[in-house]
Amino acid sequence: MKLFDVYPLFNITPERAQGSWLWDDKGEKYLDLYGGHAVISIGHSHSHYVKSLNDQLGKIAFYSNSVQNPIQEKLADKLGQLSGYPEYQLFLCNSGAEANENALKLASFITGRKKVIAFKKAFHGRTSGAVAATDNPKIVAPFNAGHDIAFVPMNDEAAFNEVLDDTIAAVIIEGIQGVGGIQLPSDSFLQFLEKKCKENGSVFILDEIQCGYGRTGKFFAHQHAGVKPHLITTAKGMGNGFPIGGVLIHPDIKPWSGMLGTTFGGNYLASVAGLAVLEVMEKENLIHNAAVQGDYWIAALKKYPSLKDVRGRGLMIGFDLPEEKKSVRNDLLQKHKIFTGEAKPNTIRLLPSLALTKEEADLFLTALTEELK
Ligand SMILES: Cc1ncc(COP(=O)(O)O)c(C=O)c1O
């Protein structure tokens, strides 16, 4: 059977990885500054993470959500403590799209409404509800388009006010737009949305799937603005490669039996992976490291006269290449063996492990200097 050919692939076959580094089947070494779409949070193959997963695999890998699972509870406690949301409730699922799907569903349950406000260029995943909240026609099928979504430019209060009415169940926004090219909602815009949602009885959803889990130097990106959403969705860095997603749910939102559900969500292996990630983040002070290395990198990148609009927070950074230097991302990979991300047409995205060192950040700067000459 052939694989369904939907992914443009690099001609590279990684065989093993450690920290911020990958090795391919030819023994070539690569610096990973992308973490496979911001997934690698604590570094590849961290010893505590590997041991925790191996130990659990030898005991029990899976049973359904019909029995007690103390590891889920430990994970929820640790997540509450580190994120500053100890009073919230946690629903565990398997991916980012699923987390957003469940958040939108919750919002509709609570309000009895159907409509959603989302933002232009945002990306929330590929399930039916989540993908409908994305305004990229290439990835929205007719089946998805039945959802009633109003798209508004980010940071545009007047445009938002025009579509807000008492039919709006939810407003969903990324703490920082990732796939949309590292675009930041301003702190005041997030505060405005929080206030408007409260006044209007709409549910305020923060998609922290790419920008959360310590990446911006706070546990969640929206915490820079001091807002408190009703629902926060997370995935990617939460499992450092093990598929896991979650929705953090405001304490006023009451569950009923069967309201949400999943077979695999929160299984033993996923929960152990999630717990190990948080333990490493805490022990190694990785959120602080993300802030320090991020400030260093952003300041250094701002000194390159040819780079436009260096932006981001912590280790979620984007910048635009000059038109004639569009090949830089490919050259960084082919010549310097450095993985980075992109956003169309010419933005480089940096989303490395939160354990990135200054030496690793400098390797990138040296390679970039050479390519921009
Ligand atoms: C902000 C955001 N939300 C949701 C998703 C979807 O996550 P997943 O691919 O795990 O379904 C992504 C994936 O890139 C994302 O960046």
From TrEMBL:
Keywords: Aminotransferase, Pyridoxal phosphate, Transferase. InterPro entries: Aminotrans_3, Aminotrans_3_PPA_site, Class-III_PLP-dep_AT, PyrdxlP-dep_Trfase, PyrdxlP-dep_Trfase_major, PyrdxlP-dep_Trfase_small. The keyword GTP-binding does not apply. Its cofactor is pyridoxal 5'-phosphate. The keyword Transferase applies. Pfam families: Aminotran_3 (PF00202). GO terms for molecular function: identical protein binding; pyridoxal phosphate binding; transaminase activity. Belongs to the class-III pyridoxal-phosphate-dependent aminotransferase family. This is Acetylornithine aminotransferase. The lineage of its organism: Bacteria, Pseudomonadati, Bacteroidota, Cytophagia, Cytophagales.
